[in-house]
Design goal:
Length: about 180
């Protein structure tokens, strides 16, 4: 039962974090990342990378001045969005404060940056399970909030009638007869 209590606490914490976030409506990931950067007072650079076998599909690296988020650019747009939200969730949860990689490890993952600049590197394959669960849950909750705030698409009546019939619904606006 102890694990259940821990998960409930994790869920409550993530729900509070997600509910407190101001999300742009309609949701725009770039605007959201800019808002997180402004709130943190630090630049966030988003860098596409090709996926490599046995490498994480997303990565967060922090320097003294900038947070770098690397993401797989050879996957679907929805998956890319989730990867970016997952890495942002690490920032929102404070996971970026624990040192993780040595300069040598960081140099292999981020060859364009001098290893001395990188303070921390977080990747899905090299970080502790509870923090990964928290980041994954928070990313999912952010995405759910963003989707629930989106306006419902409106189908033209000609397209909606066959669908309404399949669902056993009458014509829009009730009986017309």
């Amino acid at each position: 039962m102890r694990g259940d209590r821990g998960y409930r606490q994790l869920r409550r914490r993530c729900r509070r974090l997600a509910d407190a976030l101001p999300l742009p409506v309609p949701f725009d990931l770039d605007r959201f990342i800019e808002a997180v950067a402004a709130e943190r007072g630090r630049r966030i650079d988003v860098i596409p990378m090709a996926t490599r076998p046995h490498a994480p599909c997303g990565l967060l690296a922090t320097t003294d001045d900038v947070d770098y988020i690397l993401y797989a650019d050879d996957t679907s747009p929805l998956h890319q969005q989730h990867i970016l939200l997952h890495e942002i969730a690490h920032l929102l949860c404070g996971h970026h404060t624990a040192p993780l990689a040595t300069g040598v490890e960081a140099a292999g993952l981020l060859p364009q940056l001098p290893p001395a600049l990188i303070n921390r590197v977080l990747g899905r394959t090299v970080y502790s399970q509870p923090q990964e669960q928290e980041a994954e849950l928070l990313a999912s909750l952010i995405l759910c909030r963003a989707r629930s705030a989106a306006p419902e698409p409106v189908l033209p009546e000609a397209q909606s009638l066959p669908l309404r019939g399949l669902l056993g619904l009458g014509p829009p606006g009730g009986d017309r007869g």
